[in-house]
Specification:
Layout (H helix, E strand, L loop, with lengths): L6 H9 L1 H10 L22 H10 L3 H13 L19 E6 L2 E2 L10 E8 L8 E9 L7 E7 L5 H12 L3 E4 L2 H10 L7 E4 H8 L8 H7 L11 E2 L4 H4 L4 H25 L3 H21 L1 E2 L2 H26 L8 H11 L7 E2 L2 E2 L3 H6 L5 H25 L6 E2 L2 E3 L9 E3 L11 H4 L11 E8 L2 H10 L2 H8 L4 H10 L8 H14 L5 H8 L3 H14 L1 H17 L1 E3 L5 E3 L8 H34 L5 E7 L2 E7 L3 H13 L10 E6 L7
Parallel strand pairs: 1-5, 1-8, 3-6, 6-7
Antiparallel strand pairs: 1-2, 3-4, 4-5, 9-12, 10-11, 13-14, 15-19, 15-20, 16-17, 18-19
Helix pairs in contact: 3-4, 4-8, 6-11, 7-10, 8-10, 11-24, 12-15, 17-23, 17-24, 18-19, 19-20, 19-22, 20-21, 21-22, 22-23, 23-24, 24-25
Length: about 675
């Protein structure tokens, strides 16, 4: 059936037929072997909490640890650590029926304090209907007394049912995990979201951005020993057959109750870490702003995307054929092994780097071979085009909704530096350095009667470096209102600004931006395609010209080593325990993280503050924020208000923070994103 398959897959199967046969022979399980044990011999005993955590810390696998400990609890093998036998500390969580507009058994006068919320989705969170909701609240005087109710959400009455449930909550703050997804769904149904009290995932992310999984179960395992466990739920309402649609309802009630306990603990931790302002005034409001952006989406020219995808597919096919002609034989251009055989065997090129499995053909290796043979440039071009075709050509088209807009998801709890990211699709990865990549931006448009206000921070990371280091030369370069990269190049290479060449400016620019990411001589050499010795000389010259920058880098690493974390001026922390690792290479990598975390973290804080302030400053009747990418914000404005909103956006972004150098914003009013320059 090879002829019916896509060429790349057919070629791969044809070239690896013997391996495929071996895989098929080895795949069936052999189950006739006498293991020498019976099932009873494999029964699990109680879990030793401390030893389990010590083991998973040893193998450095927090996610595996969370999954394993979750499974242990699910199987009923309870912890015999500090809570063993301490029935006073266990929360009793009965559940009752949540019916119509009221809660049977809810306290008279409504709820007070906080209310735990947990929801069950039909499919992916935030992009599908909600099938069940659990609500938990404190009941009586018992310190740990929490009651929970669960209500199924009829598929044909989701909006009305959710409206009733949210009205029950009233004006108290809700507590839960991944509340942005809940807010997004409510907004999609044109329902006003309730007040957010605590998002436990967001709070835990601020405390430790390396946890990764911020679900209730994962956080309970992460803070095991700090959160008192809940006792098994006991049904006190109608028969379970009438109350629940599945066995998951009890777990959902537990999740809502545990959210309250986690929220109380994490709020106290946030206060102790002095991050209350960052949490309550920036991250929590931003949660709602991002949900609004996701619901709004951004308009796209679908026909333009289809045309681009066709063009890239055609170009990739042409380049593939050109590479095969230059190689003098048929080969799979996507096969590293076959490319290595052609380049370093048949064509006799000198391999700059070899891996355990053969000769490397990565981008860095091919860049060093430029000019050695015409096939190198063709391979690099093919990879660029093929990546754009496969990553953005078809995937962007598939993400266009029925309304002609792309509704990306913005991630607030992924990047350890505090930066935002996106997926479905990942708009942050749309390339901007190459002309061919920029063409995708022309497919993002303003709808009829509207314009796009595009605004981005100018050299925000370098301005943050100037602020944090207090370097007089760097501050003077920014306050002189001349080209910053020309000014820095003049100081680095010891020439007058008027004598700076384009190459010198490019090198100084690369150093300046590289500092924000902890780039060293090796990375600079790869970026500039120069040898490491020259790169080291350029870095030395930069630090000689701006000595306060070197001092800041050294001091921030030393402080992070002492405290175990870096901290921005707004209180954002990043834990870096690897700074005390015995392995030199691990420590070296951690030092680079420490250098860039303060810079990236402060830039992230400024950008998030700007987004929150913009949401408050822009009248929804005039326009709305529709997209955020790196240091760039896109606002969809009605044509008659476009210039007014451009001024508001620029002023709001520039006023987001007060640094030793001014924040500068470039802003444009355009019809297509790609027109902003």
């Amino acid at each position: 059936n090879l002829d019916a398959l896509p060429p790349r897959i057919a070629t791969s199967l044809r070239d690896n037929l013997e391996i495929l046969k071996l895989n098929m022979a080895m795949t069936p399980l052999i189950h006739e072997i006498d293991l020498g044990v019976e099932l009873d011999d494999l029964a699990l005993g109680p879990l030793d909490d401390a030893k389990a955590r010590e083991f998973f810390d040893l193998i450095e696998s927090k996610r595996l640890g969370a999954r394993a400990l979750n499974a242990w609890d699910y199987l009923g093998h309870v912890t015999h650590g500090e809570h063993s036998g301490d029935d006073q500390r266990h929360a009793e969580v009965p559940h009752e029926l949540l019916s119509g507009q009221g809660v049977l058994g809810a306290p008279e006068g409504g709820f007070s304090g906080t209310v735990g919320i947990a929801v069950e989705w039909a499919h992916e969170a935030g992009r599908s209907p909600i099938t069940s909701m659990a609500i938990s609240w404190r009941s009586g005087v018992e310190p740990r007394g929490i009651r929970s109710v669960v209500r199924e959400i009829p598929g044909n009455d989701e909006a009305a049912t959710l409206s009733g449930l949210i009205s029950v909550v009233g004006t108290v703050g809700i507590v839960g995990a991944s509340l942005k997804e809940l807010v997004r769904r409510l907004l999609e149904l044109s329902l006003a979201p309730p007040k957010i009290g605590t998002d436990v995932g967001l709070a835990a992310y601020l405390m430790d951005s390396s946890i990764g999984d911020y679900s209730i179960g994962s956080l309970l395992n992460h803070y095991r020993g700090s959160i008192p466990p809940l006792a098994p739920l006991a049904s006190t309402g109608p028969a379970e057959a009438d109350l629940f649609s599945s066995g998951d309802s009890t777990a959902l009630a537990s999740e809502a109750a545990q959210a309250i306990l986690l929220g109380e603990f994490l709020e106290a931790e946030i206060r102790k870490a002095d991050m209350s302002w960052l949490y309550s005034e920036v991250e929590l409001p931003l949660l709602v702003v991002l949900a609004e952006m996701e619901v709004a989406g951004i308009a796209v020219d679908r026909d333009a995307l289809v045309e681009l995808a066709k063009e890239f597919a055609s170009e990739a096919a042409r380049l593939g054929e050109s590479i095969r002609n230059l190689a003098g034989r048929n080969l799979n251009v996507n096969s590293t092994k076959q490319l290595g055989e052609v380049l370093f065997g048949e064509l006799g090129l000198a391999p700059p780097k070899k891996t355990k499995t053969g000769f490397s053909t990565d981008a860095q290796t091919l860049e060093k071979l430029k000019g050695a043979h015409p096939i190198i440039e063709e391979i690099l071009r093919y990879r660029e085009v093929e990546k754009l075709r496969s990553t953005y050509g078809q995937s962007l088209i598939s993400e266009v909704g029925a309304d002609g807009r792309i509704h990306a998801t913005f991630n607030q709890m992924v990047a350890r530096t505090g930066r935002l990211s996106s997926d479905h699709p990942n708009l942050h990865n749309i390339p901007i350095r190459t002309e061919i990549g920029k063409r995708f931006r022309y497919a993002f448009v303003a709808p009829r009667g509207a314009s796009l206000v595009v605004a981005d921070y100018s050299q925000i990371e370098l301005r943050v470096i100037a602020h944090l280091s207090g370097d007089p030369g760097l501050i003077e370069a920014f306050t002189s209102e001349s080209d910053i990269h020309t000014r820095t190049a003049a100081r680095v290479f010891g020439v007058d600004p008027g004598e700076v060449t384009s190459q010198q400016r490019a090198k100084a620019k690369m150093v300046a931006y590289g500092l924000a990411y902890g780039m060293e001589a090796y990375g600079l050499a790869a970026r500039l395609n120069i040898d490491v010795g020259e790169a080291e000389g350029i870095l030395r010259s930069f630090f000689d010209a701006f000595p306060y920058v070197r001092r800041y880098m050294e001091e921030v690493v030393e402080k992070a080593r002492r405290l175990g974390y870096t901290e921005t001026e707004f209180g954002r922390r990043r834990r870096i325990p690897e700074l005390s690792d015995e392995n030199f290479r691990v420590r070296q990598g951690a030092e680079r993280q420490a250098m860039n975390s303060g810079i990236q973290g402060l830039a992230a804080d400024i950008f998030k503050i700007a987004l929150v302030n913009l949401d408050r400053a822009i009248d929804p009747a005039k326009g709305l924020v529709v997209l955020q990418v790196h240091d760039e914000i896109l606002v969809e404005a009605k044509d008659e208000f476009a210039e007014e909103l451009r001024d508001i956006v620029s002023a709001t972004m520039e006023a987001a923070a007060s640094l030793r150098v001014p924040l500068a914003v470039n802003s444009y009013v355009v019809q297509r994103w790609g027109d902003a320059k």
